[in-house]
Amino acid sequence: MRDRKLKTMIIGGLNDFDKLISQNDIFEDVEFNLDNKEMKIYSFKSDWVQFNDCIFNCEKLSILNITKNELQIEFKNCTFNCDVYFENCHIDSLSFLNTKTIKSLKLYNGFKREQNFTINKFNFSNNIECELTNGKTPILTTSFSFHKIFFKQYFEFNNVKNTNGIFSFTDNLIGDIQYEKNSSCVFNSSKLSNINFTNNKFNTYTSFKNSTFYFNNDNFNSSGSHWNESKFERNEFNKVNFSEVEFDKFLKFEKCDFLSTTWFESCVNLKNTHLKFVACEFKGFSLFNDSKINFLDIDRCTFHKSSSFTDAEFNKIKLYEVKFGGGAYFDEMKINKVIDKTYLKDKTKILEWKRTLRAIKQELQKTENKIDFNSFRGYELAAHYKELDWKFKSGFKDKFILWATKWSSNFGSWVWAFWFTIISGFFWYSILYRIEYSGSYNPEKIESFFIGLFRFFLVTDFFSPFEVGRIYLSNSFSWIPFILGKIFIAFGIYEMIQSFRKFKA
To answer: Quick one: pLDDT at residue 6?
Structure first.
């Protein structure tokens, strides 16, 4: 038979608390007042224990060494003005629903190394519209820590706003083979700050969809945490979904293995995000489509299957020694610093930009995206031109060729090449005309000026443009602008043809 205690106030010592816990399994509107004392629980009366609308005023609430595989513990609408510890337990489920406040929550295996702390089902969630807080989800400043826990069936951490706390998730195992078709790990619609996911193995589908990761250096200093950056390090994921996640400031994935499909689609923060991947293995399909990220930094990673960055937008992107084994799709991708040419301003970063643009260009070539390939070829040439100097023994020849390409077509623009041809041809022809017809301006000869101009644009015609027949120029000085003009016109036409080639099938 399940007992119920309503509005019970504990003011006495720990003996009263122990007695109440041993005699009841449902606690409603109970206020536990044991200031500066630790409340320890080693057992419960039944397999189902509920704490509803309770307040815990103490130094620490500890649930220790309980091995009861059918035990279900639920805290609903509770206030914890204390630290909450679970150590060395083996239970069926643990739930925290609509928690108003909690100083810290720590689940750990203690000093026992032979077997992990095991829970079949864990749930720490808040309703989207929590009636207890006038329709607003509670904002927590909690230090969460999960260490060496085996979450067999599912782990849920949904709609939790912990924007000024820390979140440590280390050496955990999520997903047992017996629940293979009915298990998950979800952190959906949550706001977490200063995260540390290290040495975890996610055997089941994992989702962080629509969540936000914050970075606050002040929290690290005040919490005494042993890490100083938000990170995912040495984790193994099965299918994992980071779609619609907002990465605030800095977040690093280091030495992580993504065994199956990985989603980073529609992630948004063009303001200050630095999302970094270091030495990661993407063994399944990886999707970054439609994401808008300030700085995407991929360092020494391998993508074994195809990856897609289609319609993504970045202010800056860095690819260093990245292997795209299955091909990468960069269709319609935007890099704002490249488009507005600010990537050329810092010469110390030019080599880094050139390597990145070359990697993207090579993948565009593999996927036969000729239009974007030609654009990134131009961006790469512009970076290479900026990198070179005019010293004769260190790049003068390449610099001169690229200089000519820059001014004749702006590294691949047919419009630029067209106007270069027209303007340069008109310029040299005007000089030639002035030499041939020196003296005062005669408006009656304007017709002959334009007739000769059209003939001057015929690159292979080396006869005088001012004579009807096949007659060469007689003035030796006239040959200088004549030959230079033909060279400029020919080069402009060549660059225009090269620019049009990107539309050829």
So the answer is: 42
